[in-house]
Amino acid sequence: MSTQTAVAAQEQDAWEPRILVFCCNWCSYAGADLAGVSRLQMPPNFLVIRTMCSARVDVEFVLEAFAKGADGVLVAGCHPADCHYIGGNYRTRRRIALLRMLLEQYGFDPERLRLEWISASEGEKFQKTMVEFTETIKDIGPNPIKEE
Amino acid sequence: MSDKIKIAQYWAASCGGCDVALLDIDERILGVAELADIVFWPIAVDTKLKDVEALPDGYITATLFNGAIRNSENEYVAKLLRQKSKIMVAFGSCACFGGIPGLANITYADDIMDYVYNKTPSMDNPEGILPLVEYHAPEGDLELPEMYDTVKTLEDFVEVDYFMPGCPPTVDRINEFLDAVEKHVKEGAPLPPKGAVIASEKTLCDECGRKKEYRKLERVYLPHELDEIDPELCLLDQGIICMGPATRAGCGAKCVNVSQPCRGCFGPTSAALDHGGSMLSALASIFKVDESETKLSEEQIVELMSHIKDPLGTFYEYTMPVGLIKRAVREKRRSKA
């Protein structure tokens, strides 16, 4: 094995997913907090950004995250019919569905973008989601935009 | 030597419509000859690149550069004209945002070459010969420009003084700019601030005279799918995807006035990060939400949004090379699931 390929292989092994999580203020952020205070074990691969509603997550935020090299983006909001702003999460759901179509056209695996409904009492669901999503992203591999 | 201003116009990766637009400024074109000497304009006057190369730096008052930068020749001429010009104008959507040629960023140069020279049904090329950038023939060396993988904008290569969007720029905007240059030359009036976009700061919706009802959509239509398009009512209210909410005004709402939806050629306003992204948000939010919403499954939502057949082509028709994600990517490892 040449030095160059050895280094490349090493880097490949060392790669850890970087995931950006948008949590709505009213449900999912509290859910994530609950997961934390309950000391539920989660992979340390994600950063959380709190927004007032999942519908506050502009399409641009997600595109910029991918453009800057995020390997996965999770948008988490209140369950249907539970939105603090009545229907914000319905808009989010439509937007994310369309955005996943767009990402697929760009050549991304659409699984890199995920939407989950996580309530304030669902610390366990937050943990489970993060474990699963990190595995999914590990499977898909690094964001291909970083190589350009 | 006359004291006229000196103008150059060049055509990079574009369709030629911008050149025609410049000829389309009515009787004013006659005045242009009084105001300006045309130094270089391949489509209209017979000057060669070597003539431009021989000019002193800054000799040309203004270059109206149209077209995206797609190959090494485009890049070379852009840099050459920048060096020879006082004012560099990105003329038209392709020069400003990459325009329709920018949609080539959905694929790669090698894929395009392979399709054109091997896979096109009418192509007969058993040896798979592709064009070469250089070829040494006994009679001499031959060269072709190198096609780039990614279509880029003029600003990606040289400093641009003004942006004049539009596919093509409208007569009014061209006249506005020529007036400003003329006043600057004859009366010493200041030019617009550097980096200015010769258009409006508002969105097309602001300029459009159609009545807005803010209806909630059940589905979207292509203009030809409707028997009749109401000439008074907002096109989005009628289910036609119109880029008006996300697009800069300044065109005089020419398309929407004749019941054709805006396709976004004036690009985003300065407040938007990403033209297509802001339109996607807007469109996803105007589908009807009713009491059955909680019962809709994720699959049904995907089906609802699938009414929009080609999001990338629709939302980034003119602006893919200036979007947050400027070109398509290739995933290495696909999920096994």
What would you say this structure looks like, in words?
The complex is a heterodimer of chains A (148) and B (337). With 148 residues, chain A is of the alpha/beta class. Helices cover 45% and strands 16% of the residues of chain A. Chain A has a four-stranded parallel sheet, with helices on both faces. Chain B is α/β, with parallel strands linked by helices. The termini of chain B are far apart. The A-B interface holds A 58-60, 63-64, 66-67, 80-81, 87, 90-91, 93-95, 97-99, 101-102, 105-109, 111, 136, 139-142, 144-145, 148 and B 106, 272-274, 276-278, 280-281, 283-285, 287, 289, 293-294, 298, 301-302, 304-306, 308, 310-312, 315, 323-325, 327-337.
Annotate the secondary structure layout:
The complex is a heterodimer of chains A (148) and B (337).
Chain A: H1 3-14, E1 19-24, H2 28-37, E2 46-51, H3 59-67, E3 72-77, H4 88-105, E4 113-117, H5 123-140
Helix pairs in contact in A: 2-5
Chain B: E1 5-11, H1 17-23, H2 28-35, E2 36-40, H3 49-53, E3 60-66, E4 69-71, H4 72-84, E5 85-91, H5 93-97, H6 109-119, E6 134-137, E7 140-143, E8 147-152, E9 162-164, H7 171-187, H8 204-207, H9 254-257, H10 275-285, H11 298-305, H12 311-315
Q: Which regions of chain A contain 5 or more consecutive residues with pLDDT less than 50?
A: none
Q: Strand sequence of the main sheet of chain B, in spatial order?
A: 2-1-3-5-9
The fraction of residues assigned to DSSP E strands of chain A is 15-25%
Class computed from helices, strands and strand pairing of chain B:
alpha/beta
Q: In percent, how helical is the residue content of chain B?
A: 25-40%
Arithmetic mean pLDDT of chain A = 92
Using brief descriptors, characterize the structure shown.
heterodimer, A: 148 residues, 5 helices, 16% strand, B: 337 residues, alpha/beta, five-stranded parallel beta sheet, two-stranded antiparallel sheet
In short:
Chain A is built from five helices and four strands; from the N terminus they run αβαβαβαβα. With 148 residues, chain A is α/β, with parallel strands linked by helices.
